[in-house]
Amino acid sequence: GLGIAVYQRVLNQRLQRLSTTDALTGLLNRRAAAARIQQLSADQQANADRRHVMLLIDIDHFKQLNDRAGHAAGDRVLVEVARRLRACCRPDDVVARWGGEEFLIACAPMSLTQASAFAERIRAGIASLDAQDTPLKITMTASVGFSCWPFLPGADPTRSGDWQDALSLADRAMYAAKHAGRNAWVGLWGKANARCSLQEALDVPQHGVAAGDIEVAASLRIAAWQPAPARAA
Questions:
Q1: 64-110 pLDDT, tens per residue?
Q2: How far apart are CA 143 and CA 45, in angstroms?
Q3: pLDDT tens for residues 33-66?
Q4: How far apart are alpha carbons 184 and 53 in whole angstroms?
Q5: What is the C-alpha separation between 41 and 46, in angstroms, rounded?
Q6: Digit-coded pLDDT (tens) for 125-152
């Protein structure tokens, strides 16, 4: 009976891991990451200077690697990127494979300066990855976008922005990094008591930037604030 109980316990733990982690990289999957981010929001107090940070990381030209070197080579790159992201992060950071070649990191409160340094560390860490074990000598890079929540501190709490709004803004920033030339990072940071609304920041961030309501940090000059392409269902 004791042996059966121990076996059942081990089996349950294994099933729990399978339900919360990505099978290839060992990172959290999307559902588990969302639950952890909810806990992160509740456990840490943010203010106007230090806020929770959301980062999206997308490997540049990943489809080209898959097409030319094969999916096995692509999988090896994903595993190595995941390892490097874990190495860059603190123990309490949420690190997840968000889908395909896209990764997500959610962090406890930090300043814009700290978030920018963190984004650069991630960019540089991935840019030093060579796909040497493939038939091609390919240097991998990534585009990184980040934002914060609450995005508009000092506003009505129901309109200040939650982590899902930060995710949408980080997505917009990530595609701005791609339009700027890739191998780059871009961050969007709302100012306290800003006049623009959260919806305006999401729809046309360049207007908030021009009005002085949104601060932009970037490793390259911004080329365009085009919306992200439609996601496949």
A1: 888 888 899 899 999 999 999 999 999 999 999 999 999 999 999 99
A2: 29
A3: 999 999 988 766 777 789 999 999 999 999 988 8
A4: 17
A5: 9
A6: 999 887 655 555 677 899 999 999 999 9
Amino acid at 223: A
* Residue 220: strand, helix, or coil: coil
**Strand, coil or helix: what is 95?**
strand
Give the residues across from 59 on adjacent strands: 142
Task: Mark whether 200 is an active-site residue.
Answer: no
Rounded to whole angstroms, how far apart are CA atoms 66 and 56?
21
Q: What span, in angstroms and rounded, lies between the C-alpha atoms of 226 and 178?
A: 10
Stretch (H or E) spanning 104: strand 102-110
From 80, 101, 102, 215, active-site residue = 101
Distances (CA, A) of 179 to 37, 43, 192, 202: 28, 36, 28, 18
Residue 166 CA from chain centroid, whole number: 10
User: With contact defined as beta carbons under 8 Å apart, do 193 and 150 qualify?
Assistant: no
- DSSP class of residue 55? E
Assigned token pair, 35: 């639950």
Contact between 175 and 156 (Cβ < 8 Å): no
Name residues whose C-beta falls within 8 Å of residue 24's C-beta, 6 or more positions apart in sequence: 75, 78, 79, 97
Pairing of strands 142-149, 184-190: parallel
- As given in the structure block, the two tokens for residue 109 are 């409160």
CB 180 within 8 A of CB 217: no
| Number of C-beta neighbours around residue 55 at 10 A | 28
- Give this prediction's pTM: 0.88
